[in-house]
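Task card 7
Instruction: Convert sequence to structure tokens.
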Amino acid sequence: MKYNKFETAYDKIVAPYQKDLMKNIERFVAINSVLDPTTQSETDPFGKGVSKALDFIYKLAKKDGFKATNYANKVVEILVGEGKKNLTIMAHADVVPAGSGWDQDPFSVTNRNGVLFGRGVADDKGPLLACYYAMKALRDNNMLGGYQIRFLVGGNEESGSLGIEYYFHSLKKAQPTLGFSPDSDFPLIFAEKGIGNFDIDSTFKIPHVYSIKGGEAANAVIDRCVVKMDKDAGFISLLKKNKVKFEVNSDGSEVAFIGKAAHGSVPWEGINAGLIAVKYLGEYYKVKELKHAYKCFSDDKGKGLHVDAYSPDMFDNSLNIGIISYENDKFHMVANFRYVNTADLKKIKLNIIKYAAPLLIKFQGFSDILYYPLDSVLVSTLLKAYQDETGDLESKPVATGGGTYAKEADNVVAFGMQFPGWDSKMHSPGESTTEEALYKGMAIYARAIVELGKKLK
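Output:
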């Protein structure tokens, strides 16, 4: 990781909380908090696992003497102090599905020489706890006052941000005066692409194929796609000829296409197994609808739909197919699309409908682009806090395709916790962080809270 190793006053302040952080990250990661439609109900709006994760944070905060409220198992609010102005920290307890390719249980923390592996250690349970203990350390050392801190933990960031939407729009809570979300990269994110999901549907028959199933989340590249079909030696021969990675069961009735997982914001870093299945099934069985789907959606920057665009600040638009299914002649895909500040959203939607036809498109909604000037109070204060704690004056604020809670509220940017030079493999097998990063993250967050607090007084 790229920063200078030296001890600061804030390192000393948070050091006594390292043991509690390590103990609770193990307990927290052990809770499978993936959105679960099978257990969703009025009392568990995102499924029982997410409710359990929110309850874990709620009980931890109450045990530690904080004022905490669990709002309908959608969002937990932890409050410190009083004041008309607030500093709002926004993190999330839900995680993306584990997916395949792990070499250990993804819902337990494996510590290998100080490197922690497990779903959520980097996105966002580890950073959440680093922030929480930074806040606790400051409170315990009487370093807060004159404003209110709101620590919000949502249960639905990975699939819609409905928890935070409920907090601000249904409960009509005040917007942040200043704030940050520990859910991306250091030094910080000053701009985020606009993001939207949409469904692609059609009805047609694929000869000799009974079902296709790949992916679990729109914002992750499909790493495995299973096709149930009649045994066909010619099809297998085609795959081998083209050096496609696949597995076939003993009787040839199930072919699993193997790709490479990646975050949906950077689909070019992965290999989409679902699109590979679409390509070769379409070619071999001469299914014009599959050929058309591949033509439209295979380019990960949107060229197939004429929706590509480039920005000097934000780089390229991105297009990811995160879910694909076929059964009883019903074909379905879910796309995750991210657009830059030089793109025209109205034109994007029109082109998607136009060029995807006759495939049917249904938009699920699009978030706006987020952008804060580098000289704004929020960005400059957080950047200085990072620099003062790390000595890293080279790394610059970045624009990202990833979407965070910063888009769901006023005056908030994403701030850490992935350090420059470290690939945490968010949304992929082998997600990781380090003990060192968690401890330094606590110190950075503690300093950031104090420095933002000074702006609020």
